[in-house]
Amino acid sequence: MKIKLDNLVFFVSWLGISICLSEVQPVLAKTEALTDVASQNRQTSSSISARDLLAQENTQSQLVRITEIKLEQTERGLEITFQTPSGQRLVPLILPEGNNLVIDILDATLALPEGDKFNQTNPVEGIREVNVTQVDDSSIRVTIAGEGQTPDAEVIPSQENLVLSVTPEASTTQTEADEEIEIIATGEAEDDDYFVPDVTSVTRTETPILDTPESIQVVPQEVLEDQQVIRLDEALRNVSGVTFGGTDLGRNLQFSIRGFDEAPILRNGFRQFGADVVPEIANLERVEVLKGPASILYGEIDPGGLINIVTKKPTSEPFYEIQGQFGNRDFISPSIDFSGPLTEDGNVLYRLNALYRSSDDIQDVDENIERFFISPVVTWKIGDRTDIDFELVYFDEDRPPSFGLPAIGNEIADIPYDRITNEPDDFGEEEFLSAGYDLEHRFNDKWKLRNAFRYTQQNGLLEVAFPFEIDDETGDVFRFWAAQPQEGESYSLQTSTEGEFATGAIDHQVLFGLDLNLTEDNFNDLIRLDLETPLELDLFNPVYGTSPRPDFDTLPLISDRETETRRLGLFAQDRFSFGDNFFLLAGLRYDTVEQIVTDNLEQTEVSNTNDNLTPRVGVVYKPIDTVSLYASYSQSFRPNTETTSEGEALDPEEGEGFEVGVKSEFLEGDLLATLAYFNITKQNVATEDPEDPFSVVATGEQESQGIELDVVGEIMPGWNVIASYAYIDAEVTEDNIFEIGNRLNNAPENSASLWTTYEIQKGNLQGLGLGLGFNFVGERQGDLDNSFELDSYFLTNAAVSYERNNWRAALNFRNIFDVDYIAGASTVRVRGNDRGEPFTVLGSISFEF
After folding, report:
1. Are residues 325 and 453 in the same domain?
2. Rounded Cα gap, residues 781 and 452, in angstroms
3. Whole-prediction pTM value?
4. What is the DSSP string of 475-514?
5. DSSP string spanning 145-200?
6. Facing residues of 664 across strands?
7. What percentage of residues in the chain have a pLDDT greater than 70?
8. 253 and 327 in a common domain
9. CA-CA 20 to 30 A from 465: which of 124, 353, 458, 576?
10. Strand-strand pairing, 68-73 and 182-186
């Protein structure tokens, strides 16, 4: 199937934007027509009656979405702001009940990242708690609990939003009047919770985690901050069943999920085709992991699952943060995070993240690690129903290549862990650019359209003494001078529609859409290599620099291929709701992938097309509101890049898996626990042709099954926890080379993690936080032949922090007992077994203003 991708991209993109703009009406005309809820003079709760407020006209034709709740201490007490899209008005009914002030807001719904509630204890002296809940489909309730008497509240006139000024007891309003405290619970800005109940970006629908028939784990921004996460693999240690697979010679990060390697990394729901890069953490809101076969949502993918990183979005209120990080091994990393409105009406918002980072490598090399990163984002609220985000991401990084430690016999060589098998002055660099938009148009409360586009460009270069082979008897490593320049471009378009309707007593939440991608690259296919001049290195007594570095541009080309890949995916899904406690999910996706490989040395061109249908079905039963029992079945596929002895392309790899589990919320929804059993099989794995050892056939099969437990959330105010455990039995079940029953490489049977923090809430030490945790990874096989084994390891981590007003200082200690360990392994004995991070100290100081 030949896809006219350029024309189709233009047409679908134009169609999505045209439909949205045709629906937009000027915001000004609507807002001027609304009747003011409050008079221009402030009215206190003692002078506003429920009858007066009910008598005021409400001209809104749909529910008002509250997207942000902000608490700010003032001289009088507390100011509460309810943020709404484009300044839609809210109708408050203010009534005292004992020591509590109860405020009902009509024709409104909560659209916060934590779902249908918000809670903050002791926001200011004299007020014990502010609690916001969704009462029913069209109203919310705000309860403000006073300590000694009923607080007073008044509506502050505002051109947009609902702003309440709350005054506690008179004796306490002036205490700490000069301090300013901001607590934000919003999808627009950072959140203090460990538990995020909704993950639209990875599921592509607005469905709570509790109501989805898959295992979905989230590492929120608060965990990234508490652990001072620098790299993505550090964040994913908190998730069960995810194993780090190394850095692929220092160029990108590789992960296994549920025993299957090559788990893809998505950014805001977009797959990064070609070669992955080391993503930046500085602008991340959270990290999401969707486990199990997920081809129905994202096309070609391995059956273990996928990783999605979600970036920060602009805020409606000005926000400015400057941070400096420092640590051992000469680590330094200044960064900024600025956000706020660009226009007076607040319809255009921005966010800017920028960072510079420099540090020594953990192995003995001459080159430092340096990265410059910048990411501006602009949000334009075109109307009350249409928003569009424009995002650019750019970074430039110099990083020494990493070949890890080789295996000798059945274990990692007994040498110092900072020793290298290449040369100390080897060089690597990476440049990455991504630009695009995300548009959402809401036709009404039930139907919405999403249209998004991404362009990415990558350029990389390695100039190294490449280790090819090792002699187990002598310890001699045989190397060759090699250069590998890489470049690639990718164009991706996503268009989907989500809607709700009912057929009798059955409610439907439907999703259907189209994905397009065009990728052109030469990753791993442009190689310059000097096979005439081998470089030997004694692993146990290395002497470096014995051969002069060549002009790498003059090395012979041994491979020069370019690959063009065109992808088209069509999908449809329906979530049936039978009442409030039983849900059925069913979906189907069609993918076609055309790959054209041009060999510039052989002057040949080979084209291959794969088509595939992948279904998914799942059920959720909720015996009570806080407990979900679920089961699911899904499939996946990924094209094979190998060819048979006749030069024909192999059939694509196919995966299928089922999962059963239980999810439960505890402590009034502050804590989530997920327990899952899974069984996944991958077929058509490329393996050696028994009749031609130089060719392959797609007859291999691998199977993984196991149990996972994840717990995340708040145990009590100030006490957070994220913990995981996984048992995985992953093995080869059919193959022409490897013995049946061999374990899949880099897949431990047992792994576990725990991280818990406590921040003192009151008294002289208020704001002081302590953290403690561990990471355990069991023994792993280094390759599919099970020829060598990686030892288990147990890491202990701790942290101390202090936060007050607008500044925060923190100190983190990783691998406190300086354990030597292998963090990730490839399938090659001589390279790719990456050393884990030794004892590390990280400090930071940040200011908000």
Report:
1. yes
2. 41
3. 0.79
4. -EEEEEEEEEEEEEEEEEEEEEEEEEEEETTEEEEEEEEE
5. EESSSPPEEEEEP-SSSEEEEEE--GGGTTTTTT---EEEEESSS----S---B-H
6. 627, 673
7. 87
8. no
9. 458
10. antiparallel
Strands ordered across the beta sheet of 162-167:
43-44, 152-156, 162-167, 78-83, 68-73, 182-186
Rounded-to-integer distance, Cα 475 and Cα 196, Å: 50
pLDDT of 481: 95
Written as six digits, the tokens of 767 are: 């704001």
- 3-state secondary structure at position 74: coil
Residues 158 and 291 in one domain: no
Reference 267, options 298, 300, 234; nearest CA is 298
CB atoms within 10 A of CB 768: 15
Domain count of the fold of the chain: 3
Is residue 169 in a domain?
A: yes
47: which residues sit within 8 A by CB, 6+ positions away? none
Q: Which helix (H) or strand (E) holds 18?
A: helix 5-23
Instruction: Provide CB contacts within 8 A for 743, sequence distance 6+.
Output: 730, 731, 732, 780, 781, 786
What CA–CA distance (Å, rounded) separates 347 from 132?
26
Residues 6+ away with beta carbon under 8 Å from 463: 426, 427, 428, 482, 483, 549, 552
Owning domain of residue 163 = 38-186
Residues 108, 238 within the same domain: no
Determine the Cα–Cα distance for residues 279 and 689; give it in Å rounded to an integer.
38
Q: Which residue, of 309, 334, 359, is where some domain finishes? A: 309
Nearest to 656, CA basis, from 637, 634, 678, 639: 634
355 and 240 co-located in one domain: no
Token representation of residue 372 = 């410059």
Q: What is the pLDDT of residues 147-186, one digit of tens each?
A: 767 888 888 866 667 888 888 864 333 333 333 333 333 3
**Rounded-to-10 torsion of CA 638, 639, 643, 646:** 120
Question: What are the residue ranges of helices labelled H in 204-246?
Answer: 221-226, 232-236
Residue 94 CA to residue 53 CA, distance in Å, equals 9
Burial 176-205 (b: 16+ CB within 10 A, else e): eeeeeeeebbbbbbbbbbbbbbbbbbbbbb
Rounded to an integer, what distance in angstroms lies between the CA atom of residue 396 and that of residue 475? 37
Would you state the pLDDT for residue 44?
Answer: 38
* 193 domain-assigned: no
Characterize the bridge pairing of strands 386-398 and 427-442: antiparallel
Residue 835, C-beta contacts closer than 8 angstroms, at least 6 positions apart: 362, 363, 404, 405, 417, 418, 820, 821, 822, 823
- Give 378-403 pLDDT, tens digit per residue: 999 998 899 999 999 999 999 999 89
Asked if residue 136 belongs to a domain, the reply is yes
In a domain, 355, yes or no: yes
pLDDT at 771: 97
For residues 592 and 534, state if they share a domain: yes
- Around Cβ 210, how many Cβ atoms within 10 Å? 21
Please indicate, yes or no, whether residues 164 and 300 belong to a single structural domain of this protein: no
CA distance linking residue 173 with residue 75, whole number of Å: 7
Q: What is the pLDDT of residues 404-422, one digit of tens each?
A: 999 999 999 999 999 999 9
238 vs 341: CA distance, rounded Å? 35
CATH of the domain at 77: 2.60.40.3500
- Which tokens hold the place of 329? 């091994």
Residue 24, both tokens: 């937009």
* Phi, psi (rounded to 5 degrees) for 505: -90, 0
- Give CA–CA dist 74/126, Å, rounded: 13
Supply the pLDDT for residue 647. 66
What stretches in the chain show pLDDT beneath 70?
1-62, 86-88, 113-115, 148, 157-160, 169-192, 201-202, 274-276, 645, 647, 691-695
